[in-house]
Each structure stands twice: as structure tokens, then as C-alpha cells.
Amino acid sequence: GARPGQGGAGGGGPGRLTVGLCPQEEEFRWLLHDEVHAVLRQLQDILKEASLRFTLPCSGTGTEGPAKQENFILGSCSTDQVKGVLTLQGDALSQADVNLKIPRNNQLLHFAFREDKQWKLQQIQDARNHVSQAIYLLANRDESYQFRTGAEVLKLMDAVMLQLTRARNRLTTPATLTLPEIAASGLTRMFAPALPSDLLVNVYINLNKLCLTVYQLHALQPNSTKNFRPAGGAVLHSPGAMFEWGSQRLEVSHVHKVECVIPWLNDALVFFTVSLQLCQQLKDKISVFSSYWSYRPF
User: Fold this and answer.
1) What's the gap between Cα 3 and its chain centre?
2) Closest to 204 (Cα-Cα) out of 265, 259, 242
3) Domain range summary for the chain, segments of one domain joined by +
């Protein structure tokens, strides 16, 4: 775009000489005074959109109320052994309804959340908190704020990018859990009727997907000749993984994983990517100028 001081005959003239600004310096001033704030405005707009996805207003007004309930049907075409409906309300699972077909005896198990229970999805909660933190950092530097040096802009961009990277990582990197941790998690106690002792359930977010894993277990006999090696932490354990629970040694016999896409998490991840690109572009511009005057505090 046109920059101040570029008009007039040949863009030079005595005015510029008395001020003593060379073209690069004038361009840098313009960058600090105008373009930085334009980028910050753009970032705030994008991140407000992202945070709206997380709050999921219950009406079209955009005001925060109790989040609306959304039902997600889980199942995979490769197997019909597990089918389920999970109800998400903001960052909490408010209902879960799961059917599991056990092939060996063709038994059909059905379990659902107890009425009074909700399961917080910490990943969504944390991601939302990081977005709020990034918005707060940007709002602290409003239009009236004058950036004095490039270093100051770089510092702000790094702080915002750190929050956005953390928000994205919370969704893209589910926690690794050991099988005893899954067994001890409150999720196993959420169901009515209670889960049979040979089943474990885990729910997590991976990228834009809500994932439900059901582990079928069998007890290893005390005289079993199998070499017992407890499995470490994993996002998804494989059949054959072993662990000790109570006085029993158990092995995973079958693993059923079903998932579905949550469209608004997809949106949020796109907003994070675009915002991180904007921050990086601004940092690159500042760095180009800083290399002109390596002896100056830009």
C-alpha cells in the first residue's frame, strides 16, 4: 500500500532531509505505527471467531449462555462392534450411549452415562483458555499504544504464538495414559449399569475428532507362561498390552476405536493456523528491517 512520505515530486524534497529519515527508516516507522496495529486487529477478529466456536452460544445472539447440546454418532464402517452416541455440551460430555457387540458369545452390551454425570474434556477447556490468553495479550496493545521498537513487536508476537501453539497442541496431542490410569479414571465410574470388570473405556480429542476407545480385557492365569511386561503410556493401546490392576494381571484382548469429526473444532484449528501464519509474517517483516540496522535496537 502507499506509505506516508512517498508523495510529492520524486518523493524526496527538503522536508525528508531535515528529518533525516532514509526510505527504509521511514518505511519501518510506518510498519510500527500502522501495519502492526492492522495485523493485531485482524488477529483479534480471527481469535474472537475461534473463541466463539468453543463457547458455542445456545442462541443466535452470540451471548454466552449454557452451551447447546450436540449429538455425535460414533461408528466405523469397518466394524459394527461398537456404536454410540456422545452428547457434547461445550467442553463436557453430558451423555454417552454405547452399544458393544461381543463376538465370542454374540452378547450385546449397552451402557450409558448416569443421569447426574458429566465428563469434562480437559483438552477443549485448556485450548479455550489459551485462546482467551492470546486475545488478552492482543487487547492489551490497543490502537493508542505506540510500539517503539521492532523487538517489542517480536516479543508480543512470540507471546501470542506460544499461546496459540499450546492451544493447537492440546487438540492435536492427546494425553498418553497407562492402562491402570485409564482403569482408575473417573470415566469408568460414569456409566449405569456399571461397566463389566473386563471393559475399559477412554474418550479423547485428536485433531478435530472425538474418539471413543473400548478395551476388552482378559485375566492372565497365575500359572500363565506368558512373559508379563506391563505396558507403558499410550494414546491407543494395542491388543496384547498387559497391566496389573488390584491383585490381577490383565491383558488387552480386543480394541475398538470409533470416532467422529466435530466441525467447530475443525474451524478452530484452521483459525489457529491462519493466526500463527499472520504472526510469523509480521515477525519476518520486522526482522528484515532489523537486519538493515543491526547496530540499532530494532
Assistant:
1) 39
2) 259
3) 22-57+124-172+265-292, 70-121+175-262
Q: What is the pLDDT of residues 47-66, one digit of tens each?
A: 999 999 887 544 444 455 56
210-243 confidence digits (pLDDT tens): 999 999 999 998 887 778 999 999 999 999 999 9
Task: Provide the angle, in degrees to the nearest 10, between the axes of the packed helices 36-55 and 263-292.
Answer: 160
What is the 3-class SS of the chain, one letter each residue? CCCCCCCCHHHCCHHHHHHCCCHHHHHHHHHHHHHHHHHHHHHHHHHHHHHHHHHCCCCCCCCCCCCCEEEEEEEECCEEEEEEEEEEECCEEEEEEEEEEECCCCEEEEEEECCCCCEECHHHHHHHHHHHHHHHHHHCCCCCCCCCCHHHHHHHHHHHHHHHHHHHHHHHCCCCECHHHHHHCHHHHCEECCCCCCEEEEEEEECCEEEEEEEEEEECCCCCCCCCCECCCECCCCCCCEEEECCEEEEEEEEEEEEEECHHHHHHHHHHHHHHHHHHHHHHHHHHHHHHCCCCCC
Q: Half-sphere exposure of 274 toward its Cβ, with a 13 Å CA cutoff?
A: 15
Cα-based distances in Å from 49 to 81, 98, 237, 270, 298: 38, 33, 36, 11, 32
- Say if residues 251 and 218 touch (Cβ distance below 8 Å): yes
Residue among 65, 57, 54 nearest 134 (CA):
54
Residue whose C-alpha cell is 510500527: 32
Query: Of 7, 39, 3, which Cα lies nearest the Cα of 24?
Result: 3
Nearest Cα neighbor of 220 from 232, 228, 212, 211 is: 228
Half-sphere exposure at residue 118, Cβ-oriented, CA atoms within 13 angstroms: 12
